[in-house]
Write a structure and sequence with these properties.
heterodimer; A: 113 residues; mainly beta; seven-stranded mixed β-sheet; 11 strands; 0% helix; B: 113 residues; five-stranded antiparallel β-sheet
């Protein structure tokens, strides 16, 4: 089934640990995005990539890094997790051609203790 | 500063009535606006897209209007059902083609049987 997958579904992490959230899409979309969603704050963009090999910073990039080695994968890394990074993380993709919509993954619920 | 506003208070309506949700924006020049539905624990799902030169768009029981003079979009669900209960997000894409939409915080709709 075409779409976006994220892993893990949920994770509890000790502060200071490194963590990579995985995101894979099989729609050959050019653009991919990482958002975090917190109660009362809505979806906030962390990083994005308009095409393989390029990345950009969103609204809240500090403490996070991304890479886009190929079209399908867009991992998000927390180098040293802090409790304020407790959130639900959504990956999304978009074909990147004209007026098109985003497709979202199921999300990863991350708790940093 | 740029702002997208959706009612933070939940909208409670009776089954069969029309639900109307509002999305207001300031300091944006949107090329188009999108509405998404989000169920608890899931990623947002695209519903409708309307362009700046369109006044109205319909899809089954859904209708979206877009008034660039008032800087407002209205999202209507006619003959609402309890299954329509969810959070509804609006998202703006600005002219210029950055492919990075900005999301409102969403409005929760609760349809009572």
């Amino acid at each position: 089934i075409a779409g976006i997958t994220q892993a893990p579904t949920s994770q509890i992490l000790a502060a200071g640990r490194r963590m990579t959230l995985r995101c894979t899409q099989d729609m050959r979309h050019n653009a991919m995005y990482w958002y975090r969603q917190d109660l009362g704050l809505g979806l906030r963009l962390i990083h994005y990539s308009n095409t393989a090999g390029t990345t950009g910073k969103g609204e809240v990039p500090d403490g996070y890094s991304v890479s886009r080695a190929n079209t399908d994968d867009f991992p998000l890394t927390l180098a040293s997790a802090v409790p304020s990074q407790t959130s639900v993380y959504f990956c999304a993709s978009r074909s990147g051609s004209g007026t098109d919509t985003q497709y979202f993954g199921p999300g990863t619920r991350l708790t940093v203790l | 500063s740029q702002k997208i506003e959706q009612n933070s208070e939940a909208l409670n309506i009776q089954e069969g009535k029309t639900a109307t949700l509002t999305c207001n924006y300031t300091n944006y020049s949107p090329a188009y606006l999108q509405w998404y539905r989000q169920d608890p624990g899931r990623g947002p799902v695209f519903l409708l897209l309307i362009r700046e030169n369109e006044k109205e768009k319909r899809k089954e029981r859904l209708k979206v209007t877009f008034d660039t003079t008032l800087k407002q979009s209205l999202f209507h669900i006619t003959a609402s059902q309890p299954a329509d209960s969810a959070t509804y997000l609006c998202a703006l894409d600005e002219a210029g083609g950055s492919y990075i939409p900005t999301f409102g915080r969403g409005t929760s709709l609760i349809v009572h049987p």
